[in-house]
Amino acid sequence: MEQQPTIVPDGLAGKTIGNYIVRYKLGEGGMGSVYLAEHPSIGKRVALKVLHAEFASQPEIVSRFFNEAKAVNDIQHPNIVDIVDFGTIPSAISTDPPMVYFIMEYIEGASLADLIRREAPVPPDRATAIALQIADALSASHAKGIVHRDLKPDNVMLVTRGRERDFVKLLDFGIAKLTGSAASTHRTRTGMVIGTPQYMSPEQCEGRGNIDQRTDVYALGIVLYEMLTGKAPFAGDGFGEVLVQQMASPPLAPSVVVSQIPELIELVVLKALEKRSDDRYPRMDDMTLALQDPAHYIQAHGGRAGFLSSPVLRDPNLVGSRAAMAILHAAPGHAAPTTLSGSASQLASAQVVRSRRRLAVVLALGGVALGAAVVTAVISRDRSPPERDDQIAQRPPPSPGTTPRPAATPPVPSAPPASAPPPATPPPPAAVPQPAATPQAAATPPPTEPAPPAPEATVSITIESRPPGAQVFVGGEPTARGATPYVLELQPSTAGAEIRLVRAGYKPMTTTIDRHSDAKRSFALERATAAATRPSGPAAASARPDPGPEDSDDTMDPFKKKGTR
User: What is this structure's pTM?
Assistant: First the structure.
């Protein structure tokens, strides 16, 4: 069904930009708005992206805006969205900034994020076919000295092309890094954390300036992991927690989440997720070879026993900080019991020691990651989009003085060594009669060990919807907790918890619920308009909530819609 025009508050509807007439707005983000435009003679549709007026007078931001057009034009690959024109239009008022824009092909389809939300786990053959197209596009990008740096399912569109389904179109080169000879035209300062935390490499999380193509290798490994399992390997309540996990925590083996994943495909994915960039595939072309023929590639690079260099979890109960502590406390020369065993990853002692050193530094200096998170927040705040109907509020950071993840690592009471006698008053010699106890002696209690902390209490809130089957998102979490009816376990608090209900064919609902006691809440979902319910098209890519304001410029995807709560 044809999408109906919406109100365009800035009055661009009906105006001519280049050779195209603006029809209506498709979406809006932190840096700009995207419109559907049409050629008046031949009817060709394009997506018009216009930089927000408050940024159009800032040369550095305009340069970054046009960087996407330059990057895409340099690559010229069928799996990358094509940008056909860009320019500026002077304002009729001399004191106002010019209108800065570029024109790109209009894609009707669904995002990879939509596919994961609807159908994950994606069968390995289909997931591999999609990943190979992404890898092919990124290989062409790397050959031109361009690193994407923000690969994620939201930036991958899947369209039907003839008889071929799942044809990939890669979007959003807005924060692409030009390397080599192109570095002088676009340089990111060392210490700036740019990207989406769930898909950022450890070196990105550390704010390094020497980012290269192995960062995209890591991100593609996470995207493939998410396709195969339905969840990203690292998640948390806030982006600071995710950054720490990216730098310090080993991933949970995909086959622990979905047992049907073949071992060789699992090894290919885990190789891309090595913490040290030197341990990953050196080029995207190598990852392509591994995806095309896993058995041959793995055998040629150390076999199953020597293919991986970093530990991988097999225990689903040890995630996040627990996984980091398991490796940190592993005895020197011995692999932690939570890592893969047998031929899949028999860790050498040097590898464990290396992981322990890295984890010790990261965990002991956790403020480094939190500081990086603050930088991310500062950068993102300048380009954070207004609240959209596919974006929920970010969960507030922990209050000062709160110990991170207390339940994962409870304090262990100190006790005297086993060989030492208990601290008690020695009895007097047997030959001497015992004197009567004095009040002072009776008042001296024996030393006692501190009691272990009581387990944290939770409240159970049953979430129901009419109709049922709505996905339940909490705070800024990137993935749904489950589908209604769903029992939500939360820590009791006088502050409310923000939840979001998303169901195909209905308008997303965001609301705040009390969490001071057990309760049941029921919500009636409002059916979406015809324009929002069609199975493909611009609205189809907006159903999946973003991780929060730390996201990069999402206006590179012209298929997300803006709305109000």
Answer: 0.58
